[in-house]
Recover the amino acids of this structure.
């Protein structure tokens, strides 16, 4: 075992894994974290704790991860390259693992142009692939990037993101291969609405044998309304939503949009379970954590292995 | 070349408020080409300042000049005599020129009339784009002659990130995704295998991050 | 302060503004004493430097008479002139002056009447301000 994390164990058992996402509060209100975590307890194998997602200032992912760890949930601490240089990153990893955090998802991070501090300086000292390799070096060689011995024993299950819907499409599987080579033990994909393109990408992934060297979790995000579907289709870079999905969402009767979104989400999970090389699902229901239990239950993913 | 643009005129007027007689100094190099600080711009800006000050009932005398270059000490001589007669200099060279003016004419204030923007070139008439970040450690041989440091919003070395769509960067549809350009070029060159290699963490020490930079060439020193 | 006989410098394209001016003169139309006409080979030659310099040297207003869109002998000279005028108008506002001190006026070669009217309108604007 690389980390002994619950998520790693679930994969080891060959069970279809389930993770969800928790967005920390824009402040230090612990009650917000507890309220969100409450809905996820027992429903998923691990919970991603976002790191100032969309470049909006929030409670740190390390602190939030520790809070939910104390509540008996397993965190997947997200770490972006936007806000810290290699010194900060390695230091934070020492701290996080000392606090008992066993999973880390390595991301480049949304550009600060999207957030609430657009005048900030971005760091990007490392990119996500380099971050993976640095953390792998700390774990497997016991060495920092600079070559110093690590005091102690850092156990980490390393994750990375992949976007099958970004461009250039043909390069996406090759880039995944780079992430696997750099150290990604598991992969969570961008949210999937375009199942045809996802299948096509998975075929390229299998052709490269990557599904045997990492655990791929398909990302899903329930749409909340027809308006949201239309907005995302037009405005969110790196996400493609087919017209049929938008049509279904728009056609839903007033007040039933959310239910239709969840239905689509469950259908997507059912399809993911059948795709060779997909080992789990990652449910991104930010600010909708309370709807995760019904998604998990109706998708037949309960009970979770203990 | 260095691309610059004129500071807001209000800001310039504020800087010059205490003065009655100044030298307005353009530069015949990069900023002439990007039409921000050449002889023509000296004329237009001088007129604007004079008209504004006249209107405000506080006229100012402006001597206009354009140096061959403001980024080399030897050309400072061209402004020497003119500087005797003025209280201050408004330089519309890049930041290098302003600093050299300040250093050379130590007892008189030198004000910047431009914002030095970036290193780039005119993509078309009136459109200037960034190409180089002067990071001191070139990777263009690996990336198809397209710089990911200057042209990727995140300066990724193993891009593109998930935000690349239809050839555009996630920050704006007006910004090309550098990694799409790199991919396309390497594909055209039949060198896509370059991209399968992981480029290791960069030595930023040669960039601004290593502190102010300096090159000493013993072979050239006298 | 604008005097009763404001000084107006009119930069005139030789393909439109100049013939329009000459037409106005030949018709015996009233043109102000303070009007000074400068011929340019094309509206596109109306550089920001010239226009600003005129104000700097004491003109109360600057007018650029060029061809209507689509009529420029050099294709885009008139369009570029208008862009420059707009740029300078913005700058004038920023330094606390009326943007009406620089105006772009498309005219046809045979429109002496319109030329005279536009100049008079500019005089009225200046005196009204």
């Amino acid at each position: 075992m690389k980390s002994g994390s619950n998520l790693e164990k679930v994969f080891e058992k060959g069970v279809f894994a389930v993770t969800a996402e928790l967005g920390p509060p824009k402040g230090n209100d612990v009650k917000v974290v507890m309220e969100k975590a409450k809905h996820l307890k027992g429903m998923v194998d691990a919970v991603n704790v976002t790191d100032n997602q969309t470049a909006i200032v929030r409670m740190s992912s390390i602190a939030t991860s520790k809070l939910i760890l104390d509540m008996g949930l397993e965190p997947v601490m997200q770490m972006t390259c936007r806000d810290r240089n290699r010194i900060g990153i390695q230091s934070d990893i020492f701290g996080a693992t000392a606090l008992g955090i066993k999973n880390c998802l390595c991301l480049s991070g949304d550009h600060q142009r999207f957030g609430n501090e657009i005048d900030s300086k971005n760091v990007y000292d490392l990119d996500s692939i380099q971050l993976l390799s640095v953390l792998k070096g700390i774990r497997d060689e016991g060495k920092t990037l600079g070559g110093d011995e690590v005091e102690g024993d850092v156990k980490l299950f390393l994750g990375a993101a992949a976007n099958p819907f970004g461009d250039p499409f043909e390069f996406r599987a090759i880039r995944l291969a780079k992430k696997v080579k750099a150290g990604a033990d598991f992969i969570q994909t961008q949210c999937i609405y375009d199942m045809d393109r996802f299948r096509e990408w998975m075929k390229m992934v299998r052709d490269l044998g990557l599904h045997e060297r990492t655990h791929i979790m398909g990302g899903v995000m329930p749409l909340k309304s027809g308006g949201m579907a239309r907005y995302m289709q037009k405005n969110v870079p790196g996400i493609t939503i087919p017209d049929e999905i938008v049509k279904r969402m728009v056609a839903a009767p007033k007040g039933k949009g959310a239910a239709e979104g969840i239905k689509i989400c469950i259908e997507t999970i059912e399809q993911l379970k059948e795709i060779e090389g997909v080992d789990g699902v990652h449910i991104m229901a930010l600010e909708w954590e309370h709807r995760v239990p019904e998604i998990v239950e109706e998708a037949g993913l309960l009970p979770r292995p203990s | 070349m260095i691309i610059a643009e004129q500071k807001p005129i209000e800001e310039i007027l504020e800087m010059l408020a205490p003065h009655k007689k100044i030298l307005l100094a353009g530069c015949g190099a990069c900023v002439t080409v990007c039409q921000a600080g050449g002889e023509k711009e000296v004329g237009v800006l001088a007129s604007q300042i004079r008209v504004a000050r006249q209107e405000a009932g506080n006229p100012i005398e402006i001597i206009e000049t354009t140096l061959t270059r403001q980024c080399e000490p030897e050309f400072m001589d061209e402004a020497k005599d003119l500087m005797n007669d003025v209280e201050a200099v408004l330089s519309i060279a890049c930041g290098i020129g302003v600093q050299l003016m300040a250093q050379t004419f130590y007892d008189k204030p030198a004000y910047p009339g431009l914002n030095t923007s970036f290193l780039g070139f005119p993509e078309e008439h009136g459109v200037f784009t960034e190409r180089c970040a002067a990071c001191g450690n070139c990777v263009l041989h690996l990336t198809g002659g397209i710089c990911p440091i200057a042209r990727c919003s995140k300066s990724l070395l193993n891009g593109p990130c998930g935000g690349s769509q239809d050839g555009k960067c996630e920050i704006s549809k007006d910004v090309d995704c550098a990694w799409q350009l790199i991919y396309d070029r390497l594909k055209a060159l039949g060198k896509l295998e370059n991209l399968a290699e992981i480029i290791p963490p960069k030595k930023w020490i040669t960039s601004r991050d290593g502190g102010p930079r300096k090159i000493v060439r013993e072979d050239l020193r006298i | 302060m604008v005097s009763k006989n404001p000084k107006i410098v009119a930069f005139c394209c030789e393909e439109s503004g100049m013939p329009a001016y000459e037409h106005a003169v030949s018709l015996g139309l009233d043109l102000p004493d303070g009007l000074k006409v400068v011929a340019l080979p094309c509206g596109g030659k109306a550089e920001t430097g010239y226009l600003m310099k005129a104000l700097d040297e004491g003109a109360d207003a600057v007018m650029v008479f060029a061809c209507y869109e689509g009529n420029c002998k050099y294709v885009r000279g008139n369009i570029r002139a208008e862009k420059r005028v707009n740029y300078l108008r913005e700058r004038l506002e920023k330094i606390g002056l009326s943007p009406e001190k620089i105006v772009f006026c498309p005219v046809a070669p045979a429109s002496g009447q319109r030329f005279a009217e536009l100049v008079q309108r500019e005089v009225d604007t200046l005196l009204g301000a």
Observations:
- Chains A and C do not touch (no CB pair under 8 Å).
- Residues 190 and 268 of chain A are 13 Å apart (CA to CA).
- The beta strands of chain A are 17-22, 46-49, 75-80, 103-107, 157-162, 186-191, 215-220, 278-283.
